[in-house]
Amino acid sequence: MTAAAYVRTAPEEVLPAPIFERGALAWMRQNLFSSVWSGLLTTALVALALWLIPDLIAWATTRAVWSASDGGPCRIHQDGACWAFIGHKLDYLRYGSYPVAQRWRVDATEIVGAILIAWLLWPRAPRRGLGAVLFFVVYPILAFILLRGSQWLGLPIIDTALWGGVFVSLLTALVGIVFSLPLGVLLALGRRSGLPIVKVASVVFIETMRGVPFITVLFMANNMLPLFLPEAWAPDRLLRPLVGTALFAAAYLAEEVRGGLQLIPKGQFEAAQALGLNYRLMMGLIILPQALTLVIPGVVNNFIGLFKDTTLISAVGTLDFLETIQNAAKDPVWIGPTIAPTGYAFAALFYFAFCFGMSRYSLAMERRLAAGRRR
Question: Residue 199: phi, psi to the nearest 5?
């Protein structure tokens, strides 16, 4: 009797993973029902959402007043939002008291700014260096001429007391973000400097700004800044909170950047010095790009907080977006119990859209810049 053997010529069929180990069910098991307490908490939150969200959606949609010439329907229907109020006051919420005939200048400024920002934020955009020059050098001059006006160009001068609404809030946030980041980097480098005078000055500035509330900085900028300048050079009433906002945000960004610098291994500094790079080239080409990449979440978190803190500039007489909503709600023609809640809900959607967009973009950039560090 001869021995027989069987040799497989094809691999065994690969079976799919169990249903609870793949797809949506696996994600739910890992993130929502990983333990008994996690399952109970998930169930409780879902029940709470099912209890609250339907009424909230009905308040904002089916029970809402969408069209009305005055606030009469909003006084009759008191259990829903009054979106007709937002539609009627939308121009005031966007521009404040800016003259109607000149509002095209605000639109032009916002469109040009949006194009330049998209050019800089698009990672694969061509000639981003040119875009940076246009945004940081040319655009501020153009925006000032368009918004403020120039007799030489035939544009009537519009006093900043008439500026208000959405575009003032965006202007304040943009100025604060653009100027606070480079100033924060300089303060972080100054705090690590070997020169005692530079280090002490940076520490005093940072700790002073971080030790007082933002509203205090705004009041100081509004009342004290003119005292340090000649009367002929007294800053505009809108410029004062812009300066205070940029200085306050720079102090917090300086600590974020300093934390990133401390995370860079000492070998990076030594390698840059071994290549013969001076301090400026070492920081600009080797150290700072790595440090800023590491602190992207903290920097963006500060930007988001700064964007929301722009609502405080109304305390020093600036007509920001939230202040225009409060003023519009005082119109006797539009009187109703849901007018103010509708305005605040609209403001919440506005701030959420911008803050959520910044958060998503920062996460995408963080993943892109961290690709080289993955193992």
Answer: -65, -45
> Can you read off the two tokens belonging to residue 271?
């390698």
What confidence score (pLDDT) does residue 23 get?
65
Can you give the pLDDT at residue 203?
Answer: 92
Superfamily of the domain at 85-98+159-373:
MetI-like (1.10.3720.10)
DSSP string, 121-161: H-TT-TTHHHHHHIIIIIHHHHHHHHHH-BTTTTBPP--GG
Provide the 10 A C-beta neighbour count for residue 279.
12
Secondary structure element (H or E) that encloses residue 81, with its range? none
Q: What angle do CA 105, 109, 110 make, to 5 degrees?
A: 120
Give me the DSSP letters along 266-287: HHHHHHHHHTT--HHHIIIIII
- What are the C-alpha distances in Å from 358 to residues 162, 307, 351? 29, 10, 11
**Ranges in the chain annotated CATH 1.10.3720.10:** 85-98+159-373
Give residue 133's pLDDT: 87
DSSP, collapsed to helix, strand or coil, labels residue 169 as helix
Rounded to 10 degrees, the C-alpha dihedral 294/300/301/305 comes to 150
Residues in CB range of 202: below 8 A, 6 or more apart: 187, 190, 191, 193, 254
Closest CA to 307 of 363, 249, 254, 255: 249
Mean pLDDT by 10 residues, the chain (375 residues): 64 65 70 81 89 88 83 76 89 90 92 90 84 87 89 86 89 88 90 88 91 88 76 76 89 90 87 86 86 84 88 85 89 84 91 90 78 54
User: Considering the entire predicted model, what is its pTM?
Assistant: 0.81
Q: How far apart are CA 41 and CA 140, in angstroms?
A: 50
**pLDDT score of 275:** 85
Q: Do 82 and 344 meet the contact criterion of CB atoms below 8 Å apart? A: no
Handedness of CA 182, 188, 190, 192 (dihedral sign): negative
- Would you state the structure tokens that stand for residue 307, as one six-digit string? 């964007």
Give the model confidence (pLDDT) of 233-265 as tens digits: 767 788 888 888 999 999 999 999 998 888 888
**Number of helices and strands (H, E) in the chain?**
17, 2
Cα–Cα–Cα angle for 149, 100, 66, rounded to 5 degrees: 140
